Each structure stands twice: as structure tokens, then as C-alpha cells.
Amino acid sequence: MPWDAFVEHARRELGDGIQLARHPALDHVLTAQGLRRSRAAALTEANRLAADAAAGRTGGVKEVIVGRKCAEAVLKGAEAYVPGVLACSTFIERGDPVVVLAAIEDPATGKWPTTRGSTMPPFRGGVSEDSPPRDGDAAPGLTGLEPWVAEARRTLCVGVGVAEQGRVEMFRSGSGVAVRLTHRLFDMRSLSGVLSGLMVAQSLPSIAAAAALGARPGETVLDMCAAPGGKTTALAEAMGNMGVLYALDRSHGKVEGVRALCAELGITMVRALRMDARRALRRPGETPPGESKRKNKQRKKNKNGRGEEEDAAERDEYADGFPPEHFDRILVDAPCSAIGLRPRLLQPADAAELLRAAEYQRHFLEQAVQLLRPGGVMVFSTCTINPLENEGNVRWVLDRHACLRLDDVPLCASLGGPGVTHGPRTTEDGQAVVPGERVRLLTDAEAMKVRRFTPNVEEAGRVEEGGVRRAVPGFFIARFVKERGGG
Q: Which of 81, 88, 312, 397 is most buried (CB neighbours < 10 A)?
């Protein structure tokens, strides 16, 4: 579809209130600017429901409590889906107006304050638009309640909507939309199913990470941690659907999701494999991990007459791993602490977890260096702002592999900023952070080569050329070149 026709089609699909613009630096990217604050409207609607209840016009405000991750998705424009529902008022029926509140798990234990299927006590109070009351302050409808109920009602309203399922169905069906939002704290519309087969909705830094790899038609490329497939499809587009692009994930369900997305977009060059990327290297003569298990599985299929139904991925010549120096380019979008994601209603990661995340990423980087051909390009990216995982691992891989050269990320200056030069000092065994001490991670010149996206007020309010706002999650991108003759 020609670009102008696509933009016009997108405008019709997305409707009013969404500003569309071609990104000034990434000409294959259409930005959809739809984020505007609507907190007052959402709280006004919640209080209208409360006023009706107080006047006896209804039986009370009907509430649906969702888990934190579901609430965060709602804040980004999603509907409230059944798997995210923890509790709700009694007698909710399809079509009822409901207030959607969030429950936050205990940071220490990860446990929810209530069991799934709990019933919310009746509520006839209002939702405050001001700061939450101090401990001990009284508020209408908040006295004599379990602490988690009072906290949700006092501070964690994420929107108002219409129930798509009754209470009984919500806790029996296990799937589908529970509440379709009509008023949100942030006026973002859901993009699920919009322009299906024509585009993939992604954050700007994620698109930038795929662009930084510079994949070209005809190359052999690896996406080490591919699910859910947004960067994979961006790479396939850059390659013109020509060449070979392997997409790995160790979850069968996620691999199927990548395949489905590629099929939806008409991409045929991607080979999605279920594989632990930390063990993707297979040297000549090595027995692949799990080889005996795979053979036993296939024998059972053959015995049952289902040998011809063997999964296509299992028939791939590299289903058990890749030989050294096999790829022209590798994207290492590594698992991370994800503390750059926005919005976040809770950040449970402590220093020990941040250290473990940094250590975990090194397994992927080590494999990638060995799988990369001399002259090849590797991009390392994360969705965290933790220096130990970002600049710290850039330092680690450069010190460990003399064959690698840190390269400039080929993005315009308006996309992200420089990295940091210093970070927390760790103990010699790398298992703890030394309080109050910092260590140099990158030189000034090296810090200018990487790209760090920081979600702060200044950056979110800055306007790029073309009127595109830089409201971004936290993200990090580094690009390496493997020198010829290096090992």
C-alpha cells in the first residue's frame, strides 16, 4: 500500500483525537500522538457514579479490582481483560458502569492483598482528585475497611468503563474483555487489532534498536530474544523480506506468537525457533543440549503414525544450534530488570535483582560474540535505566573481547542521548553493590557512542523537528562491530 494511502487509512481507523505524523528521522515510522491527560474527566465520572449511589439512585458504586500489570496496560490504552481481574462488586451484570481500581502486590513477597474472586464491599464515597489522605485521615467510604480496599479506593482509580461480562462470567470464562474503558486517567485508545496486517505498534526506542542494527537484504541475521516479534518484523522490513532471519525464544507459545505475527504481515523470511539463546552456539562435533529428549519425542511421534506432523522448526537444520561465526548481524534485546518501562505502579527490583539481571545478560552477549562473523554488527539493547545492565555490560563485553569495537549508533541526534560514564561499584565477586561508591564504566568518548532514552519530564516535553513529542520509556542501545580476524 502506498504511504499516503496507508496514512489516510490509518486516520480513518484511529479516528479523531489521534495525531499522525511521519517520523522525521525514521521515514518508515508513523507516530500516533494520542496521549493527553484526562484524569479530571475520569475522576468526575467516578464521582458521578458515587453521587448517584449516595442519593439512592443506584445500589452503590460497582467496582472491578485489577492486578498491577493489568492496570498498567489500561493506563497505556488497553481494555481490562478477564485474566487481570482480582475482585469485583457483587451483582455486576454486563452493561453496568463500573470503576476500575488497581491492587498492588506486596513488594517483599509478590503476593496479592486478596484472592482472585473476592467480593468488594459496597461503596458510597467519592474518589479524591487531590493527594491521598495521610495515614489516619478519615475519608468518606474508607473507614472500617481492609487496608488494601481503602488504598485502592483512595489512590488507585485507573478509569471508568462498562462491564462486558457479569461477575459470574468474569471468574468462570478466564478470557475476554472484562471492562471496556470509557474514561481513562490518560486518554489512550487501544491499538489491539487496529490496522492488522499493515503495521505493528511499538515504542520509539524499540523501533530505533532494530534500525540501529542496519540489517540489509540478503543477509543472515539473528534476533536472539525475539518475542513478541515487533523488532523481528522491523528487521524483516528493513531486509525487504529477503535473506534469512532467525528469531529465537525458549517458550513455545511465544514462538508461535512470532510466527503468527509474521504470517499476519506477509513476512516469509523469518524462521522462528524454540531455543534458549544462552545455548545457541553449537560447535562441530558437539551433541546439542536436549538432543536425546528430542529424538525420543520424535520416535513416539513415528510410533503413533504422526511422524509427518513434525514441527517445521524441528526440521530446520539449525534447530539444535548454530555454528560459530554464522551471522552477519545479531540483535541482543536482552532480558532485563525492565525498570525503564512506563507506566509503572510499583518498582519491586532491589540492588540484588539488578545485579542478577546484569549477570544474566552476559550469557546472551557471550553467545552473540561467538556467533557473529568478523566484520559483522551486534546491537545490544534493554528497556532498563540501570547502568549495571547497560553501560556496565558494554564495559564488560569490550574488556572481555578485544575483537569488538564500540560503534556509533546510526541514529539522528534527536533519538536518545549519550550514556552515563559512571555507575555503582560492585564487590569483587560482583554479588553486591558497595554503598556510596562509584566507578567509571565508559570513557566520555564511549558514552557518546551509545544511546540512552530516559523517561523524565524534560525529555517528554521536548518537541522534535516535525512536531513529534519525545515521550519515551527508558531504553538503552549500544552497537558493536566485530573486527576481522578477531575471536
A: 88
